[in-house]
Recover the amino acids of this structure.
């Protein structure tokens, strides 16, 4: 009887962001599908109403089915039988519900069987699913791979595979190998072309999420003798053709319902996607960006679950004759958890809107030439998406780890027992700051935008925002934070030493993150009074964090780095 | 082989989470504070119909509900989950119907629909808990009935195979079609609303729901499948003396709040002799008669 969408007003706040009107109009090409498909929207209000109602379905399935099955799935998990994965019973039920509800291929165009939803409501569904069961989000969220098929595969391949995804077939992205984790340039899986022009795959992949999926995107070495990323291409492997078996699945700390597979390819027939040699440098990069946004959504969903568990327990648990939430030490933990949750969520949706804008323009550009104004917007949002994706993935996943840690802390000794949900959340959260690129790699991707000023420019744009009188003080703190950030960036880059920049990068990216999230919360508070509390708590927290980093940088002499390096 | 299936469904007040203001002082249900929902066991019934639709392509599922105009909500809910069509049986003449008058009106509507292989309904509604309407519809139409169904296994060659949940276990029976099946709450839960179907049918409405300048009118004019059929007593050629209060022998005398102080139950053997014994006993102690 729970609905994870309607019980959470924060979601609607982000769904109704003023930028949505433009996103929807562009996405729907001024509602050109209205008379072609009986389920297409007639206008902006109609589209928004559809997103709202479909998210209500998501919320209901998550509250009534997926969350209910989560504990059982965590305990029983999937298994391997004769080289095939058998999902846990709860996972099967979850997938069945999502298929029947038509929640697969949500962002795919209607002509290929999808709902043609923008990324933003799709990511919102991912946020809701993750609150119910973060492990299941992996299986459901891998529909993201269809986006890569849509962007880069041939029309014939799109027609062949995307409708199957929309009908409920699952996907996987087969990238990692025993010796190629963060360093995907080292991928060795061999793709060889036969005389008739067709391709086969041979070798081993490891740590493949949902590796027994119906449709795989595979990164493989097509150029014999090559050693780097430019010898890699992307392929589609269709399970119906056979040739890939699951050797084992990993016994993981968390997200236990999501099978992590070791795959063996033996002359597995496959199809080339796009051009050879572009596998890693173009297609996987695009695939990863989508996946990173998905992990940010997973992190936010987990943070939400952790905050709710902690809040409910703190209200319920009596000690010294009163509920523990009445003690300032406990209340502070909860308030900071909520602030981090709200900050994570606003960053997630800002990012998803930027991704929406540039991706829709990219898609329109395939149909017609963009005018100069549109081109400028495409470039502007593409850059913001590129800057915000690693920032969102990095910050939200770290916050979700902190929130699940604090959730256990609120539970005290009981939280350490297997009896409460908080221990599963804690285990599930741990992977978010590791996979699809560790936080350290997100910093590597984000630091470009520190040095080139993308974040600082964004902060300066936000400074122009008119705010309520009661937010003036908060805004002035944010202005100060951005000045401290700018000064720190100058101090670090002034040294002109790459190693020193690498060493300080995480501090700079975090300073940018706290300030950017502060500004986004400030904007939210102008639309919704409820956000003000989190805004104030978060800016207090961010101010101290930024000052801490500024202090570290100001008091650090470059030669002191020697004490840290091995 | 495709089937024509009629699903009987009722909009009921949600009595599952009753607060202290759920009953009015006069002992009747305070419908204003209880949300109107799809009767839970009717959802189980709908799921059986939708499962048959998957098993036998071309099968048509029509939802039939009796109630005021807003009962069209039930039809929309059914359309969102995969039903093909729906009819609201709505007339002031039906107001105050007990189970007998309800089954009379429903059977008249079923006759008007005409072509069907199977009528499926929930075992009982959570507002009245009588479990009488399904069986009465069968009687009025002269059809066989299978009650307490948990799973319809197949419906082929004019025969239906049904697993029933009975007190002492499970039995599987075969019956000729057409017939009436009532479905137990232990059957599979209904599938969720479907995103495409919801977007397709969200503007569907019965005529009486539409105000003078309702924006849905334009959509419905363009897309006839959005018009939810609404039948009156006259449309189904019902005899008014058998409808509503006039056709309802049940008269509510008083309603009392009863708090059980003890639990008592007795099993009666499934044979005429023991049933007769019980009836005699109940007459003797003035429980009935």
């Amino acid at each position: 009887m729970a609905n994870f969408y309607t019980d959470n007003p924060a979601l609607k706040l982000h769904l109704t962001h003023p930028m949505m009107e433009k996103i929807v109009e562009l996405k729907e090409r001024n509602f050109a599908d209205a008379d072609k498909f009986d389920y297409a929207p007639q206008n902006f209000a109609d589209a928004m109403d559809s997103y709202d109602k479909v998210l209500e379905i998501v919320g209901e399935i998550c509250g009534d089915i997926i969350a209910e099955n989560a504990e059982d799935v965590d305990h029983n998990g999937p298994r391997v039988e004769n080289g095939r994965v058998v999902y846990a019973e709860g996972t099967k039920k979850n997938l069945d519900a999502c298929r029947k509800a038509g929640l697969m291929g949500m962002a795919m165009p209607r002509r290929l069987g999808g709902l043609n939803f923008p990324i933003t409501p799709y990511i919102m569904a991912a946020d809701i699913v993750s609150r119910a069961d973060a492990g299941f989000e992996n299986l459901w969220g891998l529909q993201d791979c269809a986006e890569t098929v849509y962007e880069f595969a041939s029309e014939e391949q799109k027609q062949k595979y995307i409708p199957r995804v929309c009908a409920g077939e699952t996907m996987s992205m087969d990238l990692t190998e025993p010796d190629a984790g963060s360093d995907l340039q080292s991928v060795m899986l061999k793709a060889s072309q036969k005389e008739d022009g067709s391709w086969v795959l041979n070798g081993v992949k490891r740590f493949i999420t949902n590796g027994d999926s119906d449709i795989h995107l595979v990164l493989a070495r097509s150029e014999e003798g090559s050693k780097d990323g430019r010898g890699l291409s992307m392929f589609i492997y269709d399970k119906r053709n056979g040739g890939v078996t699951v050797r084992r699945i990993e016994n993981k700390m968390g997200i236990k319902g999501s099978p992590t597979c070791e795959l063996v390819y033996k002359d597995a027939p496959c199809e080339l996607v796009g051009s050879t040699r572009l596998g890693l440098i173009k297609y996987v990069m695009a695939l990863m960006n989508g996946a990173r946004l998905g992990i940010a959504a997973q992190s936010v969903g987990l943070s939400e679950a952790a905050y709710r568990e902690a809040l409910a327990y703190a209200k319920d648990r009596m000690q010294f004759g009163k509920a523990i939430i009445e003690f300032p030490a406990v209340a502070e933990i909860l308030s900071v958890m909520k602030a981090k949750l709200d900050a994570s969520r606003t960053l997630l949706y800002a990012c998803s809107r930027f991704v929406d804008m540039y991706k829709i323009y990219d898609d329109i550009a395939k149909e017609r030439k963009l005018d100069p104004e549109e081109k400028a917007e495409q470039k502007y949002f593409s850059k913001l998406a590129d800057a915000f994706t690693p920032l969102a993935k990095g910050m939200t996943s770290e916050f979700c780890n902190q929130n699940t840690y604090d959730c256990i802390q609120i539970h005290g000794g009981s939280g350490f027992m297997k009896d409460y949900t908080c221990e599963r959340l804690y285990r599930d959260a741990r992977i978010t700051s590791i996979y699809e690129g560790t936080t350290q790699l997100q910093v590597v991707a984000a630091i470009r935008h520190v040095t080139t000023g993308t974040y600082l420019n964004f902060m300066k744009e936000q400074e122009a925002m008119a705010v309520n009188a009661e937010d003036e003080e908060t805004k002035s703190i944010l202005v100060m934070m951005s000045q401290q950030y700018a000064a720190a960036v100058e101090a670090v880059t002034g040294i002109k030493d790459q190693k020193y920049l690498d060493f300080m990068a995480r501090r700079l990216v975090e300073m940018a993150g706290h300030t950017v999230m502060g500004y986004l919360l400030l904007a939210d508070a102008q639309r919704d009074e409820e956000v003000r509390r989190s805004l104030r708590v978060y800016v207090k927290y961010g101010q101290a964090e930024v000052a801490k980093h500024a202090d570290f940088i100001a008091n650090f002499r470059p030669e002191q780095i020697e004490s840290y390096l091995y | 082989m495709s089937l024509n299936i009629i699903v009987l469904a009722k909009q009921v007040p949600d009595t599952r989470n009753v607060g202290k203001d759920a009953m009015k002082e006069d002992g009747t249900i305070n419908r204003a504070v209880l949300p109107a929902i799809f009767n839970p066991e009717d959802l189980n019934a709908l799921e059986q119909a939708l499962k048959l639709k998957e098993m036998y392509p071309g099968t048509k599922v029509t939802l039939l509900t009796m109630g005021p105009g807003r009962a069209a909500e039930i039809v929309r809910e059914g359309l969102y989950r995969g039903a093909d069509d729906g009819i609201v049986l709505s007339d002031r003449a039906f107001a105050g119907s007990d189970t007998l008058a309800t089954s009379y009106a429903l059977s008249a509507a079923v006759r008007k629909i005409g072509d069907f292989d199977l009528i499926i309904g929930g075992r009982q509604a959570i507002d009245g808990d009588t479990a009488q309407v399904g069986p009465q519809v069968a009687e009025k139409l002269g059809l066989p009935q299978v009650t307490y169904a948990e799973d319809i296994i197949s419906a082929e060659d004019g025969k239906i195979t049904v697993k029933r949940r009975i007190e002492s276990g499970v039995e599987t029976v075969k019956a000729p079609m057409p017939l009436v099946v009532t479905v137990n709450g232990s059957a599979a839960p209904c599938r969720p609303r479907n995103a495409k179907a919801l977007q397709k049918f969200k503007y569907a409405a019965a005529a009486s729901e539409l105000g003078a300048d309702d924006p849905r009118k334009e959509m419905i004019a363009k897309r006839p499948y959005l018009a939810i059929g609404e039948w009156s007593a006259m449309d189904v050629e019902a005899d008014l003396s058998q409808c509503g209060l006039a056709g309802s022998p049940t008269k509510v005398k008083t309603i009392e709040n009863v708090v059980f102080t003890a639990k008592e139950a007795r099993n009666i053997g499934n044979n005429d002799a023991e049933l007769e014994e019980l009836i005699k006993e109940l007459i003797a102690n003035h429980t009935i008669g």
